Amino acid sequence: MWLIKQIARMFCGHGDDVLPPPSGVVDYVQAKKLLNNATVGGVYINAITVQDTNSMLPVFDAGDLILITKDFEHCELTVGDIIIYQGHGTTIIHRIIEINETPDGGRVYTCKGDANGGKDPYYILDEHIIWLFTGVIHCRKEI
To answer: What is the value of pTM for the model shown?
Structure first.
């Protein structure tokens, strides 16, 4: 998990140190070929394209490639991590803003899109989380 968090900080940072995305930094096709199904420091990384929802601005925007991994332990997730989870029939990419323990020892996560006014309207359990965000490659938007 330490390596994953270092990769995330290397690409985009967390919290207040996130910089607005630059325009036209990397060619999308070249980045996708290079980064899809890659292994970085023994950690499997995949690259997917961000859809046009604007909920996570300024961290990433439509057309950017986000780097994600399944190589993480749920018990190591912390407030500030960005996760990809299944919620009510859709896949959502948002930041964890609160973690609470359940009576049976599980965890319940509250998430929010950075650009959204309020938190997500439902709680997320470990089994809903499918990927952990590790970084972003800002791409030219001709995709």
So the answer is: 0.75
